Structures are given as C-alpha cells and as structure tokens.
Amino acid sequence: MRFLSILAALMLLTAELSAADSAKPLNLLVITADDMNADSGGWNGNTLGVTPNLDAFAKSAHRFVNSHVTVPICQPCRSALMTGRVPHRNGALGFNPIRRDVPTLVEILRGQNYYTGVIAKAVHMAPADKFPWHAVGEQALGKHPAKFAEKFREMLAASAQEKKPFFINANICDPHRPFINGLSKKAKEEGPLDGVRVFKPDEVSVPAFLEDIARVREEVAQYYSSVSRFDVSFGMVMQELKAAGRDGDTIVVFMSDHGMSFPFSKATVYRNGTWSPVLIRYPGMPLAVTHADFVSSVDVMPSLLELLGVQAPEGMDGRSWVPLLRGEQQADRDFVVTHVNTVSSGKSFAQRCIRTKDRALMFHAWVGGNEKFRVEAMSGLSFAAMSASTDEKIKPRVKQLVDGETLMFFDTVSDPSERKNVINDSKYAAEVAELSKKLLAHMQRTDDPQTKAFEAAVAKQ
Question: CA-CA distance, 150 to 237, in Å (whole number)?
C-alpha cells in the first residue's frame, strides 16, 4: 500500500511539473541571413553543398517555400517584419523610421516581460525607442561567426539570470556585400575563414536569372563563399542554443531579408528579389512538412504572437499562418503582393508585384521619369560586365533592368527568369485583368500612395 501511495504521489508531482512547464512562456529566436537568395541552401534545391547546418535544421522544421518578403530592401524589410504592416502603412517606405503609433514585436514582447536582444542590423530598425532591446550586439559581429556566437551566448545567460523568457533577433550579415575575396578594401580586412568553404569560379553554378559570363561567375563564387560563412555562423548559434538547454522550449525561425545583391534580385520585385522561404521549428509542433501556400513577411509577426499566446495588436496587414501549420486551408493563399519604394540612395523607384505559382504582374511606377534604375545591387562585377557586354542576348536584359516597362507580365512556367514581358500577348489578357484587379484591391485596402498611378497605367494598357 505504501509503495502505491508513493507511486501515486510521484505521478501527481510529475503531472504538476509537466503542467508548470507547459505554462511557461516559450522563447523566440529569429535568425536572418542578409541578402541570401532563396535557393542558395541545399534544403531548397541547391547542389553545391554550401549550407549543411541550415539543411540539417530544415529537416526538423516546417518549410514555407513560397514565402516572399513584402519589401526586398534591408531597413524597410525589417520594419515590415517587426510591425506586420506593409511599408506605406508602417511609415518606413525606405531608410527612414516607422511611425511612432505603430506597435512593434519588440515593444509587445518586452511588455510581456521578455528579455529582448538583437545582434547586428539594429541600425535598420528605427526609431530606437520603438525597438527597446535590452541588449544590442554591434554590426561588426555579423560576419565573425565565433564572436557572433559568443554574443548570443551572453544574451542567453542574461535572460536566464533575469529569469525571463527571451526574444533574440540574430541577424547574420553574410552574404551581404562585400563578399569574401571581393575586390574592396573592406572585403580584404574581414576576419578569419575558419570552417568556411571558399569557392572558385569553376566550382559554382550561375543562377539562371543571371548571365553566365566570366565576371558574373567570379562574383557568384565570392557570393557562395559568403553563404558558407553564413552557414558557419548559423551552426554556431544553434549549437549555443542547444548547449544552454534552450532548444526544447524555443521557437526558432529562419529567413533571409531578401534576395542576393545582384541585378534582378535585391531591391526589385522580380522573383529573386522577394523570394525568401521561412523555416520554423517550435515545441509540440505537428510533423514538419513543406507548405506551398503563398505567405508574406508581414505574416510572421501575427504568426509568432499566436504561437506565443500573446494578443496581437490591431492594424496589422499580415495574417497568422498557424492554421496552415495545423494542416488547415486559408483563403487567398495562392498569391502574394510585394513592394519597393525608396532605395538606399534615397531615390524612389516605386514597384509593385502580384505573384502566383505560374504568373507575375509587375508595376514599375518610376518608368518614364528622370532617373534610370540604379540600386546598390548593381555596384559589383556582375552588372558592370553585363553593361559592357556586346552580346545581343545580354543587351536587352540590361535595358529591361535600367529602362524598364511600366507594366510587365511574366509566364513564370515557361519563363522562370522573367525575361520576356508578355503583357501585350492576347492569350494572357484574362489573366492580366484578373491579377490587375487583385493588385488594385490590395492597394486600395492598404491606402497605397501608388494606387492612382497604377489605375492610370492599367487604363492605358
């Protein structure tokens, strides 16, 4: 009898401890890569073997392979991510602060007694008082894997000492320019390459949306070397999380802030500019699967708040995709809308795109103005080589980027690199009309300042 009494007491204690553990708030770790293309990881089809640590994580995570950032530029992307709002509704059209009346994920979780920390990219979340981090790891850590991991370890220890759950935003600055082996002085001064695979031009595959010419191939090799250093940093962060005993009670999210810093990618609404798959792993989640639903970076904040059991603020444009994680269906997950407004130079090159599995409709409001298209992603070897080329197949591609066309429609099944504008092909007329209507509805619903310009462009078509 006494044995049974002891056993019953132990079972009750176990149940009580389990209930107490389940009542504890989960931690949150959001890891970003800086300027990394969606298909640079092996988990998403790349065959170079450059991201073994990320690939291992992907096996245990839900994978949103049709995720797009709402704006493919550093600061406005992070502003959208941290507010759940499109740029013209949070105030950060470009490299400017969000509006003070817009709640941020940092404010909300700090208000829930979370310890909040950020490593690198803090300067791209402004104004500072709207992002009240307890601790900030400086930008210089972003390309130094060991130092980055050390700062992450310090933040984990600080949250444990304060007996608070944590929200840490770990922003790895690779593969942002300057690339490893790049020609700039800054590239030559960067830290050690322990564990990094440095690629030679003949070892890489040039992405299909770029031109496979010598200087482009050279820069792609530099890029993939930087992707390798990103993966080393990612692996070290995950090791620290496990060593601290926090991998079992932490939601881990990975995404890139946008595509690679090359023509037709970063700072454009072309597919490779905005495509950024989300990986998410969390305690007690359903079996990890691949999700084909179209989701946006403005969906991340409402999704995480729901997983954390925290009340979401009013006014977000994003929708939680937690139902999708449970295997449910959501309406209007067959398209996504993306935006560009002001770029790093301060110039406005407004763009909008509505994208589905097979089609993309783009609006370039800047076409016909005083400026030719020019962004930071065109500053390296690749665009210079393309511009200098006398190849009759490359010249139109340069013109497409620099001069643009106001309305562009792409059949991404037959033309995945988005090279041929078929806006005037009558066989696509019904689809153009349908996507124009959906994009206009989004613009009207969010009070987009480009709405009238888009209506005028469609009317002229």
Answer: 9
Determine contact, residues 63/289, Cβ cutoff 8 Å: yes
Cβ neighbours for 206, distance < 8 A, ≥ 6 positions apart: 212, 216, 217, 220
> Which tokens go with 404?
């643009």
Q: Return d(Cα 47, Cα 267) in angstroms, integer.
A: 26
The pLDDT tens digits of the residues spanning 329-339 come to: 999 999 999 99
CB neighbourhood size of 85 (10 A): 26
Strand partners, 282: none
Total-model pTM: 0.94
Tokens coding 345: 């130079």
Residue 211: φ, ψ to 5°: -100, 130
Which residue, 179, 153, 181, 180, is CA-closest to 168?
Answer: 153
Q: Pull the structure tokens for residue 391.
A: 């190849």
Strand 250-256 and strand 27-33: the pairing is parallel
* Contacts (Cβ under 8 Å, ≥6 apart) of 63: 43, 44, 277, 278, 279, 288, 289, 290, 291
Residue pair 359/410 in contact by the 8 Å Cβ criterion: yes
Contacting residues for 8 by C-beta, under 8 A, at least 6 apart: none
Q: Distance between CA 42 and CA 27 in Å, rounded?
A: 27
Task: Give the whole-angstrom CA distance, residue 84 versus residue 71.
Answer: 12
Are the CB atoms for 407 and 361 separated by under 8 Å?
yes
- Residue with token string 């005028």: 456
Q: Are 85 and 316 in contact (CB under 8 A)?
A: yes
Q: In this structure, what token pair is assigned to residue 109?
A: 């979780």
- Are the CB atoms for 130 and 97 separated by under 8 Å? yes
Query: What is the distance between the alpha carbons of residues 308 and 27, in angstroms, rounded to a whole number?
Result: 8
Please choose, from the candidates 178, 173, 362, 358, the residue with its C-alpha nearest in 3D space to the C-alpha of residue 264.
362
pLDDT digits (tens, 9 = 90+) for 416-456: 999 999 999 999 999 999 999 999 999 999 999 999 999 99
DSSP string, 66-120: EEE-SS-SHHHHHHHHHHTS-HHHHS-SSSSPPPTTS--HHHHHHHTT-EEEEES
Q: Compute the distance between CA of residue 89 and CA of residue 446 in angstroms, rounded to an integer.
A: 7
Which one, of 404, 410, 399, lies nearest residue 355 by Cα? 410
Measured at the CA of 58, the angle between CA 42 and CA 87, to 5 degrees, comes to: 95
Residue 441's CB: how many other CB atoms inside 10 A?
Answer: 12
